[in-house]
Amino acid sequence: MELKNRIEYAKRALDGTALGDCFGQTFFVSDDIARQRIKDREILNQSWSFTDDTVMAIGIYRILEKYGKIDQEELAKVFADNYALDWHRGYGGTAHSILRSIKEGKNWREAASEAFDGMGSMGNGGAMRVAPIGAYFADDIDKVLHYARASAEVTHAHIEGIVGAMAVAVASALLLNKKLGLYSGEGETFLRDVADKLPESDTKYKILSAVPIKKESSIEFVVSVLGNGIMLTAQDTVPFCLWCAAYWYPSIEEALWTAVSALGDRDTICAIVGGMVSLYAEEIPPQWLSYMEHPETSQFFN
Fold it and tell me: What domains appear along the chain, each with residue ranges and CATH number?
């Protein structure tokens, strides 16, 4: 794959992440209101802002653009610098602590490993920002896995947080390869193919539990089995996102309506799904594009 194509695909994944993030963020209203808006397919007719999900995905994109790989020291610096530019972007409590520590000069390995009494974070933050890596290295799954792990380790020392990022990166690579005619799996096959690349973990086996769940299943049932990110962990978030991508990859609009129907961690679930599905789907509603905050025009893109 030529370098020009790599960075173009990574930018597509970043834009898909931002679109999903912006879209999902508009549904942080009461569950009753959210459900009615989803039923009516009612979008918010005003500007949509992205959250820390996109800010950190911008960091990954910029490092790929500059170095052609994930340099963990530089990525930690970009994460911390962008955090300092605007920390009112929905960062979780653990992220606040880690990124402030890095900005103040603490080594990222130490900052990440101190989280949760030395266990490290198993949160979904590594997964929400990683689609550009899957796009950039789509022709080499070993590199996808290696650099997805590297990107997650900067803030997530727990294996579950790392595997969540690896899973989304692999899924992103497979969907791009599917678009390019180099991969044909979907549905159950797609889910198995992602899981087969992952280290032993709860997240891997939760993804495998998605295999028998049919596309026609009710969202309530799917959430009861796979979760909806309400726990903010990788294993409670990533499996549902992969299930959405496995069946709704042809349409980013349908994929995001399905994703937000789970409620839960709405912006992050939609960011993950948007990043993955953007690598296959073509049409994005023009009105959605007109409402969303675009990464390249933000202060974080410099």
Answer: 3-301 (1.10.4080.10)
